[in-house]
Amino acid sequence: MPNKIKQTISLVPTLTIAAIASICILNLTACHKSNTAENVTPLEKNPPAATVPAPQSIVVNSPDLTNGETITKKFTADGANLSPAINWSVAPEKTASFALIADDPDAPGGDWIHWVIYDIPASQNGLPPSFSKKSVLPNQTKQGKNSFRKTGYGGPQPPPGKLHHYYFTVYALDNRGLPDDLDADGLIKAMQGHIVGSGKLMGTYQR
After folding, report:
1. 10 Å Cβ neighbour count for 26?
2. Could you name the CATH architecture of 56-205?
3. Neighbouring C-alpha atoms within 13 Å toward the C-beta of 12
4. pLDDT value at position 90?
5. Contact 112, 166 (CB under 8 A)
6. From CA 168, how far away is CA 106, in angstroms rounded?
7. DSSP readout, the chain?
8. Which of 42, 73, 89, 142 has the smallest CB count inside 10 Å?
9. Rounded to whole angstroms, what are the CA distances from 109 to 96, 105, 134, 152?
10. Each residue of 173-195: pLDDT tens digit?
C-alpha cells in the first residue's frame, strides 16, 4: 500500500476521536449550563426585598383614664376640657420622637380628631395633664389642628344618645423635625415608613 494512503487511513481514527471528544465536551458544557439554570430557584433569580420589621407594641396608660371606662367629665367639653395625662412604656430601639393622635371614630360625620401632637422627644415617656395648647413648645414638641380647627386638645362633646369611643394612639417614630401645624392627615402621611412602635388607650363618653 502506498505511504500516502497509509497516512490518510491512519489520520481518520485520530480525527474521528478528536471530533467526538469535541462534541462531548460541548454537550457536557451545555448540559451543565442548563442544569445550573434549572437549579436556580425563583427567589435566587429574584431575591425578595428586605423585610420591614413590624412596629413594636407600646403600653399606653393614664392615671386619669382606665382603658375601656368612662372619661371623667373634667376632660370633656362638659367640664374643664383639660387633657388627661398620657403615659407610655420605654421607647423602642431607633425611636427619635413620639406622636399622639386622639380620635373618635363614632362621630356622625366620620372620624373626629381631638388631639394632634408630635415631635415629642424620645427621652419623654408621657404627657402631663392639662397640657399646653401652644403650637410649638420650648422642647420643640408641636401640636396641630384638631377637628374643631383649634390647636391642642379638644375634649369629647358628642351628640346625645350614643356611646362614643375615644382612642389615644401613641406612635414611636425614627425621625423628628416634622413641619409645623400638621393636621391628623398630614401627620399620618409624614409618619409613613417611620413608625417603629405604637400602642393605644381607649376611653368612652356619652351624653
Report:
1. 10
2. Alpha-Beta Complex (3.90)
3. 5
4. 86
5. no
6. 14
7. --HHHHHHHHHHHHHHHHHHHHHHHHHHHHHHHHHHHHHS-HHHHSPPPPPPPPPEE--EE-SS--TTSBPPGGGSTTTT-PPPPEEE-PPPTT--EEEEEEEETTSTTS-EEEEEEEEEETT--EE-SS----SB-TT--EE-B-TTS-BS-----PPTTS-EEEEEEEEEES---PPTT--HHHHHHHHTTTEEEEEEEEEEE--
8. 42
9. 34, 9, 27, 21
10. 999 999 999 999 999 999 999 99
Q: Work out the average pLDDT over 54-79.
A: 95
C-alpha cell at 167: 382612642
Q: Angle at CA 196, nearest 5°, toward 194 and 197?
A: 130
Whole-angstrom distance, CA of residue 126 vs CA of residue 62: 9
CA 111, chain centre distance (Å): 21
Q: Give the Cβ contact number of residue 18 at 10 Å.
A: 10
C-alpha distances out from residue 182 to 97, 114, 146, 150, 152, Å: 15, 13, 10, 12, 11
- Residue keyed to cell 415608613: 193
What pLDDT does 55 receive?
Answer: 77
What length is written for the chain? Answer: 207
Nearest partner of 82 among 155, 148, 156, 145, judged by Cα: 155
Tell me the Cα Rg of the chain. Answer: 35
